[in-house]
Amino acid sequence: MKIVVIGGTGLIGSKVVEKLRQKGHEAIAAAPNTGVNTITGDGLAQALVGAEVVVDVANSPSFEDQAAMNFFQTAGKNITAAEISAGVKHHVALSVVGTDRLQDSGYFRAKLAQERIIMASPIPFTLIHATQFFEFLRAIVQFSIVENTVRVPPVLFQPMAAEDVASAIAEVAVDTPVNRTIEIAGPDTFTLDEPVRKILEYDRDDRKVIVDPNAPYFGVQVSKDTLVPSAGARLGSTTFDWWLTHVPPPARKA
Predict the structure, then answer these.
(1) CA dihedral sign of residues 66, 109, 92, 223
(2) Strand, helix or coil for residue 232
(3) Mean pLDDT to the nearest integer, 194-216
(4) Is 67 helix (H, G, I), strand (E, B) or coil?
(5) Best exposed site among 51, 114, 221, 252 by fewest CB in 10 Å?
(6) Rounded CA gap, 131 and 189, in Å?
(7) With pLDDT > 70 as the criterion, what percentage of the chain qualifies?
């Protein structure tokens, strides 16, 4: 089966491509650096020729409100048009658990706009809502620093490994479209401060973690259950403690 992975050279996309190829499928990594640009449309129609499935895991290069909206709306419309022309039978897209509850954020308003384009398309689809990745926890730490302390809200958190995200996407891609949203998450639920404390300890970072009811999550006020899935979510198998001690952190930029 030919499966085109939009964003196929990124953190999740590259893993999805690898897993699909291991299953014997023709997985194509579609990204600007492979000659496919969903914003300009360059290379998109050619990449989709003969494709049965399109997996979209691309993210906006900017989190600024209007830039994110422009990216997801433009890419979504271009992908839909190319899929219709190519006769694609299944569109799979990665989004975020709690997107509809994070609408004070321009980025998440853009993600919801992307989802609505997918749902309005005649192409059968499966939307995957994932919880936050372990790999982004250090970014959460950096975003939460206030006067050399790390301030996080008292919310539930069920993060998962990028490897498990990719496995779930690869399984869905070769399955029948369900025309609805499914949720995926990690095997364990914490309060947000727990994994933050562990990652600071592992990194030998002595900054103090403060649980603050007024602290935002990426600039948005959240409630206790905003970031966790509903009952029945598909759970990954990788625990945070195992990931922390077995997956090397990203290299520091010079």
Answers:
(1) positive
(2) coil
(3) 96
(4) helix
(5) 252
(6) 11
(7) 98
